[in-house]
Write a structure and sequence with these properties.
Blueprint (H helix, E strand, L loop, with lengths): L25 H16 L4 E3 L9 E4 L16 E12 L2 E5 L9 E5 L2 E7 L5 E7 H14 L10 H27 L1
Antiparallel strand pairs: 1-2, 2-3, 3-6, 4-5, 6-7
The structure holds nickel (II) ion.
Length: 183
């Protein structure tokens, strides 16, 4: 397994509509395992393939593991290949963040409950009913597979402010890197 490089906004790969996986073979399983390791390392609760530069319809989610960093907590890992939302119900507002837009957290409205159909790591079809955080994470990650970032769910003004804040954070991080290099 390997930790992959996470792609950051505004990299254009994050706006691509991803291709379905034709066959869940060993190379796909390798990618899935690397994505899981990358997600835990970050740490994050979800990661979609375009976030590691691969435009395939794959996402991994574990809303348990990253609750307590470094502690042994129960894992609730889900692998979704070619996921599709087949039912959505209700509305919930959740503060979201994204490994590709570090430092930015904004409230987003989503369906409160979804039913998702997908293939698992063995290529077997399954369905899952999800509520609250898992439902939010699924919608966020499946959006990634369609090239949609959570910022696009914000009003124009809020999105502009969020991007401005993000660019400031990026500039600050670059400055700190330069300082480190100079030492
Ligand atoms: Ni994200």
């Amino acid at each position: 397994m390997a930790i992959l490089d996470i792609v950051f906004f505004p990299d254009p790969v994050l706006q691509k509509v991803c291709e379905p996986v034709d066959e869940v073979d060993d190379s796909i399983r390798q990618l899935v395992d690397d994505m899981v390791e990358t997600m835990y390392d970050a740490p994050g609760i979800g990661l979609a393939a375009p976030q590691v530069g691969v435009t395939k319809r794959i996402t991994v989610i574990d809303i348990q593991r990253s609750d307590e960093e470094g502690e042994e907590v129960q894992s609730d890992l889900h692998v979704f290949i070619n996921p599709e939302i087949i039912e959505r119900e209700g509305q919930i507002t959740w503060e979201e963040g994204c490994l590709s837009i570090p430092g930015v957290y904004e409230k987003v409205k989503r369906a409160e409950r979804v039913v998702v159909r997908a293939l698992d790591r063995d290529g077997e079809p399954f369905e899952i009913e999800a509520e609250e955080l898992l439902a939010v994470a699924l919608q966020h990650e499946i959006d990634h597979l369609d090239g949609v970032l959570f910022l696009e769910h914000l009003s124009h003004l809020k999105r502009r402010l969020a991007i401005k804040k993000y660019k400031k954070l990026l500039a600050k991080a670059a400055e700190e890197d330069e300082d480190e290099d100079a030492q």
